[in-house]
Each structure stands twice: as structure tokens, then as C-alpha cells.
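ugh ok fine here u go
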Amino acid sequence: MEWSFQTAEELAAALRAGAVTSIELTDEAIARIERDDKVINAICVPDFDRARAAAHRADQARSRGEDRPLLGIPVTVKESYNVAGLPTTWGMPQHKNYVPAEDAVQVSRLAAAGAVVLGKTNVPLGLQDIQSFNEIYGTTNNPWDHERTSGGSSGGSAAALASGFGALSIGSDLAGSLRTPAHFCGVYAHKPTVGLVAARGMVAPPAPALPVDLDLAVVGPMARTARDLMLLLDVMAGPDPLTLGMAYDLTLPPARHERLCDFRVLVLDEHPLIPTGSAVRAGVNRVADALADNGARVERHSPLLPDLTEAATLYMQLLFSGSVARFPVEAYEQLRASAAGLGADDQSLDAARLRAMVFSHRDWIEVIDRRELHRHSWRRLFAEFDAVVCPITPTPAFPHDHNPNPLERRIDIDGVEYPYFNQLVWAGVATMPGLPATAIPAGRSPEGLPVGVQLIGPMFEDRTPLRLAELLAQKIGGFQAPASSERSA
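structure:
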């Protein structure tokens, strides 16, 4: 039997039943990577010898009667996580020889759950792109169309899952970095509520792995089914044992509903700052139709929805003010001069990004205060709705664009060009207030490319969008392997 596209849940059942060993699963995954990853380039740091040793230990543990959540299941890890003995570069050439001595807390949790780590997956330079390419490891291609991006910054993980290189992966998300690659590659991902999952050791080199509370960024699971997302989130979730974990245990609330007909859902397919491409709009409508056809209450408008224009501006301000914190003084002064030259009437997103790069602390505090007002608005909305369905980006995966100046790049939406970074506004709908969001497959474009949508839920009620994702998969289908992967099976 060929196991590469089986779910983690199915693999765990087969391992428990003695139908397969972890060594067999690991050898099959390695063989597939060695055969197929030459054209995808998802696995940038293979760790096959240690993977085989971990698989052997997992089989021995099972023979002794042990049973852990991921015991013996092959997985991958985003390159940006520290793994003792492997390079952590974030795609930055100056750090190509940096090798941490200690695992990130999430890598330790994978090991404690019994997972077999096959290796690390590719990322963009500094994790700061919607694509995954860098000078050290090259470009990761989309398994559905090698001329297109797999997304970023967890693009290597999404491409690995779509190609059958392991059943699970862990990534991170600040600007859609879990959700966008999932959308582009036709897999699932979950951006947890901010602060839900400890991120220590997912840090740019050579910074020490300290238990820092991140303002926008999260780490989270990627998989080929919603049920596998929940399985992996249960392994990952919980406070850092060095800080909040000293006093608190995690208990996530159950999903609000168990039946599709009980959900109350707000569906959005339009943003005031950027149009939604026809292929993505069709995916949103497909999900909306499935909800309505199965008895869910579906609304298209609500006065409770926070202002999306202000939300996008706040998101860009928070995102870009943090991105320049360690810029050289000379570069920072150039940004200040450019910002000073903006007209007072320029309220574009480009202007918001530039002004944010030179924020004072007073400016930043004002934005933080406005964010809290938005969070309260979301609380009111989620008293009336259980989830919000909306795009992740306006288009399916776009062709590789390696222009070294991202500000010169453009995104083509149904034949019209828009600023490249404006496509981030949909990711910011959940990221700015810190809400959980599950990316799910929602069909394909006319060109055959995957199209995904995100299901946004209430803070710390991560099980609600995950359960909705599981129920929707039963109605609209879930992951499908690219034809090239099927042929190589």
C-alpha cells in the first residue's frame, strides 16, 4: 500500500493496528522526497539519518505498548524553527552557518508526541515575502504549476504537504504565512489565536531563543485535513513552560456547534481596498452555498463588522512598524525623509506603510489603543455569528516574481494590476485583532489551481472554525493531490 497521502489520523490507526511500521512510513516518505523534490524544492534541510533513527525508536516504543499522539508519524518543520544540529538561516546568507544547540519549544513538543521529523522546509528571505525563495536554498515551486509560487513564508511546508512529503508540518503566520501557502497549494492550515501557541525558538538567527510575547505573529499547524490540524494543534497549544506555563494550564473551549445547520456565518467576498478575483470569489460562494444548502444561517452583511478600511490601515501600521525595528540608522533616516515628503492627503496603504516605518512610540501606542476597540467590535460580532468566511488573498497562486524591490511588484487581479502588498489586507482581517483562522480548500480556478478561503472564529475558540472546516470538507471536498504527485505515486 502507498501511504504518502494518507492523513495523520489514518497513519496513526494503521500504526496502532500493526499494518505498517514507522520505519516503513519514513523510508517511503524519504524515497518520495528524493524522487520528486528535485522540481518542487520544498525540503531545504533534509535530516534523513536522524529521521530513520527516530522512526526506529518509535517502533520500539510502540512494541512496548506506548501510544502518543504522533508516535511514528513523519512530519516536516519550517526552516525558521530551531532544530538542534541543523542550520536555522531564515534564508539569510550571512547566517547560513548558524546552527542552534537547542530545539524550539514546538520541535520539542513534536518529539514528545513521537513525531518523526524528516527535515526543514523552505522560506523567503527573512520570512518577509508571499513567496518562498532565497539565495541559500533557491525557489520552492507550486506542486500544481511549477511556474507559480507555493506562497510564503511557510511555502515549503505547504508544497511538502501537497507533494506527500510527510503528513503534517508546522509553520508560522504574521502576514498570512500559514494561510496563503495553504490556499495556493490546496492544503489546510490554522492560524491560532495570538498567544495560544508558544513560539520560543522560532526566532531569527543569531538571536537567543527567549520566551517573547509576539504582537501579531503566531506559530501553527498545517495538514491535509481539518481533523489533522486539530490533532497537531492539541500537541502545539499551550503556554511556554518558562513563563505563563509556570502558573496556567490550557483548556480550549469546545466548538460552538457540531452540526453544520447550527452555525451562524457571515460571508465576505469584497474588500474596500482591493477587488476579489473571480476565481477566489467563486470559492467563497461555493462555501457559502454549501453552508446555506445544509441549513446554516448565512448573512452577507452586518452592521457589527468592524470597518475593514481602518482595520487594514491598523494592520499595515503594526506590521511595518515592527519590520524596521532593527534597520541600520542610515536606512531608517532615509525612510524618515521619504515619509516626511508624503502629502497630508495621501491616505493610501503605501503611505500608511511608509509612515508606520518611522512611528514614534506615541504613534504606536495610539494604534494599539485603536486595535483594542476593534477587538471589542469583534466580540460583539461573534455574539451574533460563529464564524466569518472570506478570502485569504484576492487570487490563486501567481507566477514567480523575484524583483528585488517588492514595492515595484504588482499583483494581477483579473487583468488589472495592484500594489503587491495590498493583497495582505485579507490576511490582516484576522491577524490585526489576533483572531483564529482556518484555511481550507474551496475548489479550483479555471486554470486548475487550488483556491482556498479562511474561516475566522472568536478569540481562543479555535475549535469552532476547525470544526466548521471539518464539516465543510464533507460537503465540498478537501485536499486533492496534484496530478504530478499522483503520477509519481
